[in-house]
Amino acid sequence: MIENNASVDISSLNEKIERESAFVDVLTREINKVIVGQKEMVERLLIGLLGQGHILLEGVPGLAKTLAINSLSQAVAGSFSRIQFTPDLLPADVVGTMIYNMKVNDFSIKKGPIFANFVLADEINRAPAKVQSALLEAMQEKQVTIGDTTFKLDRPFLVMATQNPVEQEGTYPLPEAQVDRFMLKTVIKYPQMAEEQLIVRANLKGAFDKINQVVTLEQISRAQAAVREVYMDEKIEKYILDIIFATRFPEKYNLEELKPLINFGASPRGSINLATAAKCYAFIKRRGYVIPEDVRAVVYDVLRHRIGITYEAEAENVTSEDIISKIVNEIEVP
Predict the structure, then answer these.
(1) In Å, what is the CA distance from 288 to each residue of 17, 252, 302, 330?
(2) Domain named ChlI/MoxR AAA lid: which ranges (predicted)?
């Protein structure tokens, strides 16, 4: 599977990644003290953190979305802020504003809640486009301009935005171009019955374990750098590009039946994020190289919000996930 490249010593790289990723198990265990089940959500949070991306979570209320990112921030001793998106929210409520200070007869800057390591944007689709774009600009540029002063945002910087798929009245759906800024879109399912029994018991007791700091922000920064070193063979790169190009030109990949169902395919951000997420997944699995299974493990989260479906697809009840399944099953695995 892995051709040992002359310039890449896989065994020493493997040792390095195993060393650098040792904290992943400790961090996951710590978060799991309060998060029962939801293994995939916790894993995706770590992928977003290590890949320096952002996550869009879709799920009904009460699935521990807020608790998950709050627990992560406590476990790495990062700053956490929560922004409840509402129709009357203003961009200044997110990024901050200039306030006139009578004492000094001048304006001073009041920073908004975006200035934190971990930001929860709760029900992002409840706020108008102006507010959404203020947040998304900060996510993309990793900086904020208030007045004529530009501030770099704290590192690491992770935004987790949530969407409620049930109540769509009075909401402002995120435009496709803006949804593309999220590295992953994860759909959260209900817990299993046994898991929910544990959740009920813990809540009735009121006995939740305290989250301790088990990782430093410096370790996270080192891990983010190490993720970039994870080896990706040219065959895996080609596999990723085949998947992306099949969303744009399905007819070239024996998938003519998808042509009328796809409005637009994944952008180059899709290729970059699929490669990055696959590297992060390999890192979490404590491996110094990417295998096709890593790509397949993250492909739905990276692409489900990047494929536009046509009215014809909607009429036939075909989702972007159905399209991804057909593509992944058709493309030859290296």
Answers:
(1) 5, 33, 21, 27
(2) 260-327
Residue among 192, 116, 128 nearest 160 (CA): 116
Please state whether the predicted TM-score (pTM) of the whole model is above 0.85: yes
Q: Does residue 194 have a pLDDT over 50?
A: yes
CA 328 to chain centre: 21
Instruction: Kindly indicate the confidence band of residue 8, based on its pLDDT and cuts at 50, 70 and 90.
Output: low
- Pair 143, 212 in one domain: yes
Burial class (CB in 10 A: 0-12, 13-18, 19+), 123: middle
CA atoms within 13 A on the CB side of 28: 18
Do residues 281 and 21 make contact, with C-beta atoms less than 8 angstroms apart?
no
Residues 29 and 171 reside in one and the same domain: yes
Tens digit of pLDDT for each residue in 272-316? 999 999 999 999 999 999 999 999 999 999 999 999 989 999 899
Tokens 């998304």 -> residue: 136
Tens digits of residue pLDDT in 133-143: 888 888 888 88
Q: To which residue do tokens 């802020």 refer?
A: 81
Q: Is residue 225 part of a domain?
A: no
CB 118 within 8 A of CB 82: no
Q: Are residues 187 and 255 in the same domain?
A: no
Domain boundary among 180, 198, 219: 219
Same domain, 46 and 165: yes
